[in-house]
From TrEMBL, chains A, B:
Residues 2-56 form the HTH lacI-type domain. One of its GO terms (molecular function) is transcription cis-regulatory region binding. This is HTH-type transcriptional regulator. SUPFAM superfamilies: lambda repressor-like DNA-binding domains (SSF47413), Periplasmic binding protein-like I (SSF53822). PROSITE patterns: HTH_LACI_2 (PS50932). Transmembrane segments: none annotated. InterPro entries: HTH_LacI, LacI/GalR-like_sensor, Lambda_DNA-bd_dom_sf, Peripla_BP_I. Keywords: DNA-binding, Plasmid, Transcription, Transcription regulation.
Amino acid sequence: MKGIRQLAEHLNISIGTVSRALNGKPDVNQETRRRVLAAAEELGYVANQSGRSLRQGETKVIGLMIESSKETVENADNFFLGVTSGLQSVFARHKLDLLMLPCPSDEDPHEYLKRMVARRIVDAMIISDTQRVDRRIDFLSRAKIPFVALGRSLSASNFPWIDLDFEGVADHAVERLIALGHRRIAITAPSSEANLGYLFIDSYRRALERHDILFDPSLVIRIRSSEQGGYQAAHELLLLEERPTAVILIYELMAIGLYRRLMESGVMPGRDLAVIGFRDAPRARFLQPSLSCFRISLYDLGVALGRMLLATMPAYREFYPGDGRNIIWPLELMPGESDAFDVGAMV
Amino acid sequence: MKGIRQLAEHLNISIGTVSRALNGKPDVNQETRRRVLAAAEELGYVANQSGRSLRQGETKVIGLMIESSKETVENADNFFLGVTSGLQSVFARHKLDLLMLPCPSDEDPHEYLKRMVARRIVDAMIISDTQRVDRRIDFLSRAKIPFVALGRSLSASNFPWIDLDFEGVADHAVERLIALGHRRIAITAPSSEANLGYLFIDSYRRALERHDILFDPSLVIRIRSSEQGGYQAAHELLLLEERPTAVILIYELMAIGLYRRLMESGVMPGRDLAVIGFRDAPRARFLQPSLSCFRISLYDLGVALGRMLLATMPAYREFYPGDGRNIIWPLELMPGESDAFDVGAMV
């Protein structure tokens, strides 16, 4: 890869002239300009944009850290690619580029983040998959690196985040099922320490209590967030002595495996068991009976994350005066066939 | 974010002493070491690894360029995350990190790549989604940036690549269907200029010709590679005057939409129409009847890509003496129920 110095040496003209020719300045004669551009093309000249950036302490690059766990990989999760488009639409206005930083599954996310920051690749970070206690938040705060988190955490009382409304989804789902006559409602949660699992279960529990339904720990099924997890969840449901009449899923693709396992046992979703999925995903749209689930625009979520991040950065703050506040992102119920029956008729 | 200079100023001791304390050198007294480490923690000191790298012209970072097209996003494609783990396992041995560079859907991939190279973020690139004519390959070759492509292209006669065996899959699928008595076999191909579509159709055509079956262009269905594309493909199949008895898919998730549309019309995959999918994906594993498709280890593919890339880089070449050659990656048929019937009995 050639820089301006090599170009100048190759052409035997001054660096200043090469620079003026490359930048289209008028004080370079036609023939010289032609020679410089031809040589640049031939030698594979690449303008060095990093010099300027380093002097300014800016790379013009934002990092999005994702966990490339086995679970994510198997899930074929498009979640982050969906968010990416929205982020890029905001960053493009400021000629900022977005890189994705996939943390290997066998590496501690905190150590990984420290290394990536030490590499001085990015000006700011977006982190996701926040844990209940998440040392990355302390680290970024202390190191004064602008960041925004997709997900809450107990680790700091005050940091920029947007999170999906897990409480709202669990609450809405329980209310809906109770209105349909259900009293024995199962719920799934991740087997990890992800913060969202705690929010989801807490809200489910509170909603049950509001209706004087006793919380039964055996109805909380901790499982991997994947199709296979859904299959396993159905398996566990079917083994329960007193089988629930409804189940609420925390992850959209679980529905695929859950349906499969139920049908293998002759249990029909939407007739023998009410199912409410989580996010409306393209995959789940092809399920039969159609899945009751919640709609969210990942693009809009990406836009909001991007705006919130820039609102924390001195160079861009002025453009985003109203974007600094934390957001609990609402999801809208899309009723399907999977819970469209009255349990009274069934029992 | 604080560097070593700020630390030294804060503590009012020399940069040299701070450096020796941070690096655990023995000639620093206990108390000073303790003070330095405490201040480093408190002020969020981050070692600058970029200085050394820039002097050496090395960033120790490898870029994986992916296209974040609307299609990819809707697909929830886990393909690249799967490959990522394998790549990282190779790169970790050399303390190299992998970044994913998502090219926005509204940007020309060639221009995007040029900009990212100008940012001097990465030492080497992995590109994917190669087009028939792909200017990125010329650009990287000319700029002498080490790279490997996941996918062939007509753009250069000699560059490092690994590609899936699209010809082998199409050939195997046609032979299998003909052995089961099929003569009227449809095939899907991407609506884009992706090189793989051409390879797939050419091989299908040659296999038919081997058996004296006339190539019928109406049986080649050009469609988006997604669930929705599969739904549309089934729709078009059902409209054909003389309906085919079998269909070969070029993308695994198409099967989900295809099944749905067929079933809506009372056409049962594996009984009324033989279906052979492409890659064995977790999603497709839950289809009923089970899909005949082809197995591939994305992890192993990532390992091979990583080795091939390092084999082109002077600093690592010696470790990978046998990894320089292009590979057509084989896929292994996994027979399912979706084509398990004899068409003779049907007609």
